[in-house]
Amino acid sequence: MKTFIKSTLFLLLMLPMSFFAQNSVSGTVTETATGMPVPGANVIVKGTSNGTITDFDGLYTIENLVAGDTIAFSFLGFSTKEIAFTGQETINVQLDEDQATLDEVVVVGYGTVRKKDATGAVNQVSTEDFNQGQVNTAGQLITGKIAGVTVTSGGGAPGEGQNINIRGIGSISLNSSPLYVVDGIPLDNSNVGGSRNPLDFINPNDIESMTVLKDASSTAIYGSRAANGVVLITTKKGKGQEFKFNYAGNTTVSRPTNYVDVMDADEFRNLVNQVGNEAAIARLGNANMNWQKEIYSEAIGFDHNLSTTGNIGGFMPTRASVGYTDQDGILSGDNFSRTTGSVSLRPSFMDGHLKFEINGRGMYTENTFANRDAIGTSVDYDPTQPIYDANSPFSNYNSWLVYSEEADRYVLNNLAPVNPIALINEKDDSAEVRRFIGNAKVDYKLHFFPDVTATVNIGLDKTNSHGRTIVSENMPSSQLDWNGSYSNYTNNSTNKLFDAYLTYDKDFKDHSLNAVLGYSYQSFENDNYSFDSEAAEEGNDSEFIDKWRSTLLSYFGRANYNYADRYLLTATLRADASSKLNPKDRWGYFPSFAVAWNI
Question: Tens digits of per-residue pLDDT, 351-398?
C-alpha cells in the first residue's frame, strides 16, 4: 500500500513538469514552386524575441518552445506562414511567393514596371520607409536608405541641400549630381540663384515616393543627362471617397554638440609668454573669450503641414496641401523660411479609358545666409581679446590695425583675421525665391485597341529669385577707401516640357511585353542680372546681364519582355539633339540592353 501511495505521489509531482517542459524543433524551409531551400528565412516564436534563421540549405533549429507557441516563418517576397507547436520534433515548411509583392509596380522613366520584371538597378523608397523627424529637404528622406546611394549634407545650415552620389563620384571636375524628375518633369540641374538646393521647393510632406535609377539599363531612357543616375520623385495624389484632413507639426531645438579643440585664453597667454618676444607679449589682452561659443547659438525650428484628400463628384480624386517651415541655424543669423502650396487632381472618364492628372505646386522661400567666414576666424582669433575696443574706428570692433599714411587712418592689417562677431553682424546676405512647377498629363486607353495607351504630358517649371549682399562700412577692412559694398542679382528661368508617347502592355500565356515609344521636347530659358558696387568704384563693368535659351529634342523607346517569369529582357534607345551643339554634330544616341534570369 505504501509503495502504491509513493508511486502515485511521484506521478502527481511529475505531471506538472510535463506541461512546462521546454522542447526544440528542427526542419527545412523550401519554396513551394520549386522545392529549393530558402536560406536566411526568419523563424521566430510569435510575440517573443526567440528566433533563428535558416542556413544555406534551408535548415533550422529553434529551442525553448512550449506547447501552444506559434512559430512564424517569413522571407522577403514570400507570404508568412504560421504553425502552432504541439510537441512536434520536425516541422518542414513550404513558403508561397507573395504575388502582391512581386506584382508591385515601381516608377521608371515614362511609366511603371512590375518589380519582378525589372532588369535594371531600381530602388524605390516610399512614405512608410522615409526618415522621420525634422526633414526640410527631399534628400533627407532617403539618407542611408538605398545601397550604393550616398546622401551627404552640403553643410549644417537650415535647408541646406544634400549631395546625392549614385554608385560613387563619376567625375573629378564636373558635376556628379543625378537628374531629378518631379512628376515626369526633368529639372534643369543649374543652380537657382538665392536657393540653398535644387529640391527645396518641394515640401517633403508632399512626397509619396522617391525612386533611384542606378545603372545604364534603367537610366538610358533619359539619355545624356542620366549619366550620374536619375532620382524620380512622385508626389502624393488624392484617394478615397470622403474628404479627410491631416495636420502634422513639429518643433525642434538644435545646438552645437562639439567645438574645434583650441587653446583657451589662459593656455594661449602661457604659450605666448614662454615663446613670444616682447612685442607679442605686449599684444596679449585681458579677456577670456571662446569665440566659437560667441558665433553659435541655440536654433529653434517650426514645421506645420495641413493637407486634405478625397474625391469630388466620385470621379475626381483630389489632394491639396499647405505647409510652412521656419528654421534657424546654429550659426547666428542663419534662417530658412518656406511656404508651400500644392493641388493634385485626377479625374477619369469613359469608364477609366480617359484619365487626367493635373499637378501644381508653388513655393516661396526667404533665405538669410549667415557669414560662414566667421567659422574659420572663430578658431583663429586671439582668445585674450574682447569683442569691442573703444579705440577701433570700425564701430568699436576689436581689430588688429595698422596706420596708413596714404589714407590717414587706421585700417585692418592685411594678414590679420577679421573679428568673428563683426563678420556675423555687419554682413547682410539674403534672398527670396518664388517657384511654380506643374504638369497636366492625359492617358487615353484606345477603345479599339485597349492594350495601347496614348500619353501626353505638358509641364512648366518657372522660377524668379532676387537677392542682395550688403557689407557695412563698419566691417573691419584693409582697403584704404573702404566704405562698404552692395551687390544684388535677379534670376528668371523657365523650363517647358512636352512629352508624347505610346505604351503597349500585353500578357499572353507565359509571355508578357511592355513597350514604350515616344517623343520629347524641352526648352530652357534663363535671364540673369547682377550688379556689383565695388566693381563700379574700381571703374569696371558693374552690371552683368546673361540671357540664354536652349532646346532638347528627343526620341525614345523601350521594350520589356518576360517569359514565364524566369527570363527577362530589356532594350532601350534614346536619341537626343541639343541646340547647344554644332548643327552638324547635334545628335547623340544612348542604347542599353539587359537580360536577367530568375534562378
Answer: 889 999 999 999 999 999 999 999 999 999 999 999 999 989 999 999
* pTM reported for the whole predicted model: 0.79
Number of Cβ atoms within 10 Å of the Cβ of 425: 19
The SS3 assignment for 566 reads coil
Among 27-36, 244-253, 407-416, 578-587, where is mean pLDDT lowest? 27-36
Place of cell 535609377: 213
74: β partners: 42
Domain ranges of the chain: 2-98, 101-235, 258-295+382-416
Compute the distance between CA of residue 103 and CA of residue 117 in angstroms, rounded to an integer: 9
Q: Which of 587, 586, 561, 583 is nearest to 572 (CA)?
A: 561
Stated as kind and residue range, the H or E segment containing 19 is helix 2-20
Answer for the pair 163, 151: CB distance below 8 angstroms, yes or no: yes
By residue count, the chain amounts to 599
Nearest CA to 491 out of 195, 171, 257 is that of 195
* Strand, helix or coil for residue 13: helix
Distance CA 576, CA 585 (A): 11
Query: How is domain 101-235 classified at the CATH fold level?
Result: Ferric Hydroxamate Uptake Protein; Chain A, domain 1 (2.170.130)
Q: What is the DSSP string of 152-207?
A: EES-SSTT--EEEEESS---SSS--PPEEEETTEEPP-SPPTT-SSTTTTS-GGGE
**Would you give the DSSP letter of residue 417?**
P
The highest-confidence range among 40-54, 157-171, 214-228, by mean pLDDT, is 214-228
Backbone φ, ψ for residue 400 (5° rounding): -90, 105
Q: E strands, 329-417, where?
A: 335-345, 348-349, 354-368, 401-404, 409-412
Biggest alpha carbon distance in the chain? 127
Neighbours of 587 (CB within 10 A): 13
- 2-98 matches 101-235 in fold: no
In terms of average pLDDT, the best of 230-239, 274-283, 358-367 is 358-367
State the Cα–Cα distance between residues 243 and 318, nearest whole angstrom: 9
CB 413 within 8 A of CB 404: no
Residue 163 CA: distances (Å) to CA of 129, 201, 204, 234, 346: 20, 16, 17, 20, 33
Exposed / middle / buried, residue 356 (Cβ in 10 Å: 0-12, 13-18, 19+): middle
- Supply the CATH classification number for the domain 2-98: 2.60.40.1120
Phi, psi of 510 (to 5 degrees): -90, 5
Count Cβ atoms below 10 Å from residue 355 Cβ, excluding itself.
17
Nearest alpha carbon to residue 336 among 206, 433, 435: 433
> Which CA distances in Å does 210 have to 106, 223, 491?
10, 20, 28
| Cα 335 from Cα 316, distance rounded (Å) | 39
77 against 430, higher pLDDT: 430
Rounded to whole angstroms, the Cα distance separating 29 from 235 reads 40
Q: Which three cell numbers stand for residue 529?
A: 542680372
